[in-house]
Automatic annotation (TrEMBL):
<dbReference type="InterPro" id="IPR052509">
    <property type="entry name" value="Metal_resp_DNA-bind_regulator"/>
</dbReference>
<feature type="coiled-coil region">
    <location>
        <begin position="122"/>
        <end position="149"/>
    </location>
</feature>
<feature type="domain" description="Transcription regulator PadR N-terminal">
    <location>
        <begin position="14"/>
        <end position="89"/>
    </location>
</feature>
<keyword id="KW-0175">Coiled coil</keyword>
<dbReference type="InterPro" id="IPR005149">
    <property type="entry name" value="Tscrpt_reg_PadR_N"/>
</dbReference>
<protein>
    <submittedName>
        <fullName>PadR family transcriptional regulator</fullName>
    </submittedName>
</protein>
<dbReference type="InterPro" id="IPR036388">
    <property type="entry name" value="WH-like_DNA-bd_sf"/>
</dbReference>
<dbReference type="Pfam" id="PF03551">
    <property type="entry name" value="PadR"/>
</dbReference>
<dbReference type="InterPro" id="IPR036390">
    <property type="entry name" value="WH_DNA-bd_sf"/>
</dbReference>
């Protein structure tokens, strides 16, 4: 069985689609874009094809048929193997049940921000706030679009999760900006005795 390092997030996304039915890589890419899977994994055509080939070498997917349409090149249609189904199930259920040690950049940046002027920190947080608001708007639009498509909600729970997390981050960031603006947080200038 492949190691966890060999099964990237993109590989899991491929296995998820093949768990539904056999597909060729171009179809996988289109479905991932429609479902906004590209918000969760880095999706590039070249890396998708490379990932499918690697999964085939690992015995997790196999070519189920080859299609040809007119003068176009042949398209390989891939199906998930029994080992692929087993690995997919084990990895996803483990990911659902286990709180992973992740190292997001924002908490690190917050822990390091004391090295800068309070006004600088507040201005950068305002930029982040604006970007978060834009992302929430985009996620809401994606949510609405998927609802209109009548795609079962189980396929886009991730969008609701991401929107909820972005809203929580926005609320926390807004509170911090307010505390900096009202000087409720003591923020001495860098290099002063009080800042150490």
């Amino acid at each position: 069985m492949p190691t966890r390092a060999q099964v990237t997030p993109l590989a899991l996304a491929v296995l998820e689609l093949l768990h539904e039915r056999p597909r060729h890589p171009y179809d996988m890419q289109q479905v991932m874009r429609t479902r906004h899977t590209d918000r969760l994994v880095k999706l590039k055509a070249g890396s998708l094809y490379h990932t499918v080939e690697r999964l085939e070498r690992l015995g997790l997917v196999e070519v189920s048929e080859t299609e040809r349409s007119g003068r176009r090149p042949e398209r390989r249609v891939y199906a998930i193997t029994p080992d692929g189904r087993t690995l997919y199930r084990e990895y996803v259920t483990d990911m659902l049940a286990t709180v992973a040690e992740e190292y997001p950049e924002y908490p690190l940046a917050i822990s390091l921000a004391h090295a800068f002027e309070g006004e600088t920190v507040r201005a950068e947080l305002q930029h982040r706030r604006d970007e978060l608001q834009q992302q929430i708007t985009e996620l809401s639009e994606a949510n609405d679009r998927l609802e209109r498509m009548e795609l079962p909600r189980r396929y886009w729970l991730d969008i609701d999760y991401l929107r909820t997390m972005k809203r929580a981050e926005l609320a926390w960031t807004d509170r911090l900006i307010g505390e900096l603006a009202s000087q409720r947080i003591d923020w001495p200038a860098p290099g002063t005795k009080e800042s150490q």
